[in-house]
Design goal:
The protein is α+β, with helices and mostly antiparallel strands. It contains 4 helices and 9 strands. The strands form 4 sheets. It has a 3-stranded antiparallel beta sheet. It is globular.
Length: 144
């Protein structure tokens, strides 16, 4: 998620394992993020709606910053079935896109209809999130 703290401060919020300094749930300067991802295909999907103040972003971020990335394991079977209604996140180990879903649910961008583990990476890019009525998707833009 791109996070613009001010006109001069643009960051990416993500869960990753780039190196010892940049791992876990991080807020990374966008230029550093681009450096780490320069060999990847990058696309951007804009979600438009009411402006979200920094306090809301920082509050939601404070709830997930201690979450840890989970390696592949047996409990990944949770992705095989829908979990409705929404469940409060249990534990502190998640895959990266679950962490993003939790963040967007905490910011009231994604409805709390389904649990965070119902979403897959393609849901974020291709407009398949269950957005609140005040938000809508733009078309994905290939950056590189």
């Amino acid at each position: 998620m791109i996070y613009k703290r001010s006109d001069k401060e643009i960051f990416v919020i993500e869960a990753c394992r780039y190196d010892k300094e940049w791992r876990g749930v991080i807020v990374i300067p966008i230029d550093k993020w681009i450096e780490f991802n320069k060999k990847n295909i990058l696309a951007l999907t804009k979600i438009s709606g009411p402006r979200i103040c920094n306090d809301i972003v920082e509050n939601a971020l404070s709830k997930i910053v201690t979450y840890r990335l989970q390696s592949f394991g047996l409990n990944w079977t949770r992705f095989l079935w829908d979990k409705q209604p929404y469940q409060v996140p249990e534990g502190n180990r998640f895959v990266c896109y679950e962490i993003l879903a939790i963040l967007l649910q905490e910011m009231h961008i994604i409805k709390k209809t389904y649990s965070y583990s119902n979403y897959w990476p393609g849901h974020f890019c291709w407009g398949k999130l269950d957005l609140e009525e005040t938000y809508k998707y733009g078309k994905p833009i290939l950056l590189k």
